Amino acid sequence: MVTRREVIDDLRRQIERLGGAPGARKSLPFGVSVLDRHLPGKGLTLGSLHEVIEEGPASEFAGTATFFTAGIAARLKGPVLWCLTRRDLFAPGLMQVGLHPDRVIYAETCRDADVLLLIEEGLHQKGLGAVIGEVSRLGLTASRRLQVAAEASGVPALVIRRWWTVAERDLTQLPTAASTRWRVLPVPSEVVPAGGLKRGRWQVELVRCRGAEPRSWILEACDAQGRLALPANLADRQDQAQIR
Amino acid sequence: MTVIKQGSRRLIASACPTAQRVGLIEGMAVAKAQAMVPDLHIIDSDPEGENASLRQLAEWAIRFSPVVAPNPPDGIWIDIAGVEHLFGGEEALLKKLIDRVENNGIHARAAIADVPGAAWAVARFGKGGIIPSGRAVDAVSTLPVQALRLSPETVSAMHRLGVERVGQLAAMPRAPMVRRFGHETSLRLDQALGHAFELITPIIPDEAVIASRAFAEPIGRLEDLQLVVRRLSDELCQTLEKRGEGVRRLDLIFRRVDQKGASLRVGTAKASRDHVHLAKLFDEKIETVDPGFGIEEIVLIANHTEALVEKQTVAKGIEAEDESVDLSQLVDRLTARIGEDRVYRLAPVHSLVPERMTRKISPLAPLSGSTWPENLERPTRLLDPPESIMTTALLPDHPPVSFIWRRIRYKVTKADGPERITSEWWLGDEQKMIRDYYRLETAEGSRFWIFRDAPMTEGGRWWMHGFFA
What we know:
By secondary structure, chain A is an alpha/beta fold. Chain A has one domain: Rossmann fold, CATH 3.40.50.
């Protein structure tokens, strides 16, 4: 007697095979159980394209998105290629999420089309930890190319969507072939009675994900090892216990 | 001053700038010069020696472009088409070239133009520098007719007729001009104005490793070109293997049916003789080569090589244990696309002034392990230059309770600071600089890095400098 669960599992495997994805794709857990349980590979699949978009008042500078992305890269092993289009990145800031300067190679260009080529070039190199790119225009074809390149080498591509004009910001809403799209938004952090600033707090939203529903979480910002965490005063809330 | 013998007369062949200043010019009789300056330092000119050293200089100039040719008696052609971006543009290339030559004690003038003839004229008779594309005619027409590389007899004939400037010559009806001054004049005029093509035959250093292929039938398809480049690269690497060397700089020269040439150059971060990798570096650039009516010959030149020792990594019973990734090939591919100075790592510098905290180093520089001081709360994005903001603070030395940046008011709910950063007198900072940095969190949760450039009592102003989130 085949149970319903087995049938579903079998169908899942078939679909995975059709999608050209290798059966046991490696993934990087976030270390936050609610997040990892929700994602199809129990974490962020390596060897695929992920988009990070920032919301909020200063979102054109993508300060939060940079922390979020660098935090993911910091927890991966191996050198990281960072493809830049602007010169506003401040490298000492990356050390706070554990991305050591020895690990990052920067490639700088001023054109969007070139950045995509650089990212792709990086994705062909096996053994890289991750390739991070700052892109404002990412079409379906271009993102598909990156996705295929990432699948072939197993190097994750993390794309920070940057924008300068309102028209460019609207472009970030268009669909791409990325396997996940994240939207991060800074939210007020916990009040400290003595004054001063504690760890930041973000609303991390999974806007699009192959094989999972969109969902959003309130999380504590990356720590010195690049790990996210569930806020202490939210972790014990009743509705969290009921999830899955 | 050097002297050349012409029959029984001894004439000045060339004179140093000091000699030129006292009125000694080329072609003057030595006896007359000695009458003007009695203690003249005279050397017999040695045309062969000069040509040899000119060739040496040309070989040295190959570091700037694959297509370099000596232009006796006193010039060098450098075809910079397609290589200027490696040096940060034409201006930077020209400056670097002149600086390097003058450091070697050679007085040089250089010009960049669309056509060799115009560059020749402007370097010798004009101000030198860069002639914008399409402006060769304007630049050349005001120059004297000597700038056309004509024989002294032709020039003196022109002077007798009152033709002093190139522009005058160009305005003359062509047929009578050719009858009077010869075809040579017409050709030189066209070459200077960019109407006639002029071939630069590149020199190839004697010690360079070469692989070349000439075709019975000219080829032009992209796939064919790529295939030939792969084969040439394979051949070249076999030669290199015998010599125990690897390539650092590789030039690819195309000769077209119509005698025009094109050239490509790639560099590698580490000596390499991996023929697949080397051929791949050209893949993107070959698309930019215009084959015209077909390409007759392709030459691949390794003009900068280094000793390369093979290392055994895999063998029976030995596993490759070294897990570190060899990034040199990736760096080569990136460099071939965007240029050398745009691929880098940022090394920490021990300074607290934000603008000074990083230093660009080579992407393959040895890992230092050093980093910035720990627990330094710094933003990920800097605003350069900082933008002025309007603030409201309750007490003079407190962080602001609200601020206006880019015409939007933000309410500050939490703040941390101040952290004072001052100018570093030990690095020779002239101006006194004080910055009190605060980290702010607004009511929406965004975090900003702002500073005040002086204590409040001294009328300090507030600036937005960075973004945490």
